[in-house]
Design a protein that fits this description.
The complex is a heterodimer of chains A (256) and B (406).
Chain A (H helix, E strand, L loop, with lengths): L4 E5 L1 E3 L6 E3 L1 H14 L4 E6 L7 H4 L5 E6 L7 H11 L3 E5 L11 H9 L3 E2 L2 E8 L2 E7 L5 E7 L2 E5 L11 H6 L1 E6 L7 H4 L1 E4 L15 H9 L8 E3 L4 H15 L4
Parallel strand pairs in A: 1-4, 1-6, 4-5, 5-12, 6-11, 7-11
Antiparallel strand pairs in A: 2-3, 8-9, 9-10
Helix pairs in contact in A: 3-4
Chain B lengths: L8 H8 L15 E3 L5 E3 L6 E2 L5 E2 L23 E2 L7 E4 L10 H14 L4 E7 L7 H4 L3 E5 L9 H15 L3 E5 L5 H12 L4 E8 L2 E6 L4 E6 L3 E4 L11 E2 L2 E3 L12 E7 L13 E5 L6 H11 L2 E4 L1 H5 L20 E5 L5 H6 L5 E6 L5 H5 L2 E4 L2 H23 L1
Parallel strand pairs in B: 5-14, 6-7, 6-9, 7-8, 8-15, 9-13, 10-13, 17-18, 17-19, 19-20, 20-21
Antiparallel strand pairs in B: 1-2, 3-4, 10-11, 11-12
Classes of the chains: A alpha/beta (256), B alpha/beta (406).
Chain lengths: 256, 406
């Protein structure tokens, strides 16, 4: 049984030069889709079909890529929702946030709300799909993983824990087809009132010492790092010491 | 130690008894005496006493007290209480509570909430499940709402959104503040935004005069916009509350929360190879140093505990551990929640490297070393014996847990 997998892709920006490229996390979504569905993977972009950076996705081994034609600054939520519903997708993969524009990371959440599908963030691996449920591994912070069982259809975002995207090859990138579709346009009202500006470097947080007297300030400036009143177990048997350590580890929940 | 001035009869008795070995130590320093030429000599340094603020005080009224006594009580400063009796509005904050405690990101967020609430509004903190935080009042929480229940256990984002919707209905907060973090706040906030139909401001790092600035795109751009109702704030978005004490009054939900049909089943955490986790983001690190004599036992202990291995510089230089496992200024700066230092005395470079760690456990022979001063729990003794006992205790604990489950 084959599951219909769709990856949503956007146009990224190189972190230092700002040049258009394939978006890092979206490329991971395509890679995961290729591993799951192979040639049956469907990839969609909502935006300008003449953008050259889209060919980098085709170079990963796709025959064609659907483009829902939208001008810059349009709200793509409606057209993507309609597209996904019409396509009968079972598993939709996307990066967790765009590299250009607002990049709020809200799109998958709004799509899931609109379609009424469950949403999983930080998909790392799909273990199995059967009987309309998928067993997946979710990436947690600090390198941890969690196993989830989710009903299909499912919308999942991937982040940097997903498999690394394969290299984009030049030949397939030229041969692939960017299939543009005409769809309705909705203007995004946010960009009318808000403005994008080059990022200001954030001020480094200063350590403010609120001391009333010079002696206190001196003490604060010269003090060594100290936990302040840690418990010291002296002259105990190793077993008692081990029990105390075990108690702390269990309290903190690091022992699995 | 209290700073009430009390008589010490024993010290007075020693001061009277010229034959007591501590007699000279308890003599008040002579401040003036007759010199050999008959001139009165004075020692100005011996005059006065150190006051409670650490400043030298000279009491010329003649009722000088305090003398040379070592009254170094760490004075618990009572901050002024910020009270909101009848809140005009609420600012709701949903802290991450990693490990059941407020993190620095949560405190920054509460500081931002406090500045948005001003003097009329109340900061309402919404916490899911049990928590271990005892300093809610100094972090700036005016009202504390704990939503508890087994349906919120594990990964239940949809149920939590239901809970937050109930909070929204009852308290109608003017702003919702959530941390834009990977540890849950970013996801929960976006889910809440989608459920409430609010457009959030994300990765906000500054809020000023009804405007907020957040990072946009891949962090190369800023987006300035008027302050929306739902704010997902980045770390260090504001200064944490430090000058006031708050009530942290418990409040409860008046309505029961609708049970959402769970479409996502949590099958629990998956065991990951601790060695595969990058040192800088490992949650639990056991580090070995010069005091470790039996390295095979050390490796066994880390496997039994399921911890990531670390090492001090000495252990790496001596060839017991690879260079990429070194913790400290020249190695990796770790952010573990629990850091266990076995046989590490705590050179300043090593202590710098573990500065961001939450809880430090030390096993050491020397009770006077710097690591013991930093540690939250120290066990003085032979590391091999303690590690052996720890392996046995962990096995015991795990077997006991399995027996309970069966």
């Amino acid at each position: 049984m084959s599951t219909k997998v769709i990856s949503l892709v956007s146009i990224g920006a190189h972190p230092s030069s700002g040049r258009a490229r394939r978006a890092e996390q979206d490329a991971r979504a395509v890679e995961l889709g290729l591993q799951l569905a192979g040639d049956n993977l469907q990839v969609v972009h909502a935006g300008d079909p003449r953008e050259e950076a889209l060919r980098a996705y085709l170079g990963m081994g796709l025959a064609h890529l659907d483009v829902l034609e939208q001008p810059a600054g349009a709200d793509v939520l409606g057209v993507l929702g309609d597209y996904l519903r019409d396509a009968g997708a079972q598993l939709v993969l996307t990066g967790s946030q765009a590299e250009t524009g607002e990049g709020s990371g809200m799109l998958p959440f709004l799509l899931a709300e609109r379609l009424g599908w469950p949403l999983v963030v930080g998909l790392a691996e799909v273990e199995s799909i059967d009987n309309g449920t998928a067993q997946i591994l979710q990436a947690l912070p600090r390198g941890q993983r969690r196993r989830l069982k989710v009903h299909l259809p499912l919308l999942a975002t991937v982040d940097n824990a997903a498999p690394k995207p394969r290299q984009s090859a030049f030949g397939p990138a030229r041969r692939g087809v960017l299939a543009a579709r005409n769809v309705a346009l909705v203007e995004d009202e946010l960009l009318a009132e808000a403005e994008l500006q080059p990022a200001k470097p954030r001020p480094k947080r200063l350590k403010v010492i609120k001391a009333k007297s010079g002696a206190d300030r001196m003490k604060a400036a010269t003090a060594k790092a100290s936990g302040g009143g840690g418990k010291v177990l002296k002259d105990v048997t190793p077993e008692e010491g081990a029990q105390a350590i075990l108690k702390l580890l269990v309290e903190e929940g690091v022992l699995r | 130690m209290s700073d009430i001035i009390r008589r010490d009869p024993r010290a007075e008795w020693i001061a009277r008894n010229r034959l007591h070995p501590l007699h000279t130590a308890l003599q008040a320093q002579q401040t003036s005496w007759m010199g050999p030429q008959g001139v009165i000599r004075k020692n100005p340094h011996a005059v006065g006493f150190i006051g409670p603020n650490g400043l030298k005080r000279i009491d010329r009224s003649g009722a000088q007290q305090g003398g040379g006594s070592k009254r170094s009580a760490a004075v618990e400063v009572q901050l002024p209480l910020h009270q909101v009796v009848q809140p005009a509005f609420y600012i709701a904050v949903v802290p991450d509570m990693v490990g059941g405690r407020l993190g620095s990101h949560d405190r920054d967020l509460l500081g931002l909430a406090h500045s948005l609430a001003g003097s009329d509004g109340a900061v309402l903190a919404v916490v899911f499940g049990e928590h271990k935080e005892s300093h809610c009042s100094t972090a700036g929480v005016d009202r504390l709402l704990v939503i508890d229940g087994e349906q919120y256990q594990g990964y239940a984002p949809e149920q939590r959104v239901q809970g937050l919707r109930a909070v929204d209905n009852q308290f109608a907060p003017r702003h919702w503040l959530l941390p834009d973090s990977r540890t849950g706040g970013g996801e929960l906030g976006r889910r809440l935004a989608a459920a409430l139909g609010e457009r959030p401001a994300t990765r906000v790092w500054q809020v000023k005069e009804g405007q907020c600035i957040g990072r946009a795109g891949a962090g190369q751009q800023d987006l300035q916009r008027s302050l929306p109702r739902l704010i997902l704030a980045a770390a260090e978005c504001a200064e944490p509350v430090s000058e006031t004490r708050h009530e942290a009054l418990p409040v409860v939900l008046s309505t029961s929360v609708a049970r959402s049909l769970s479409r996502i089943d949590d099958l629990g955490p998956v065991a990951v190879d601790p060695a595969a986790i990058a040192m800088a983001e490992a949650e639990f690190i056991v580090s070995g140093g010069n005091g470790v004599k039996d390295w095979a036992l050390f490796h066994n202990a880390t496997v039994a505990l399921g911890a990531t291995e670390g090492a001090s510089r000495v252990a790496v230089d001596d060839g017991f551990m690879p260079r990429n496992r070194q913790v400290g200024a020249t190695g990796t700066w770790v952010t573990a929640r629990v850091y266990m230092a076995v046989g590490i005395s705590g050179a300043i470079q090593h202590l710098q490297g573990i500065g961001a760690c939450d809880k430090v456990v030390a096993i050491n022979m020397d009770p006077g070393c710097d690591m013991i001063k930093r540690a939250d729990l120290s066990v003085i003794g032979d590391s091999s014996a303690i590690l052996l006992a720890l392996i046995a205790a962990v096995d015991n604990y795990r077997n006991g847990a399995q027996r309970d489950a069966a």
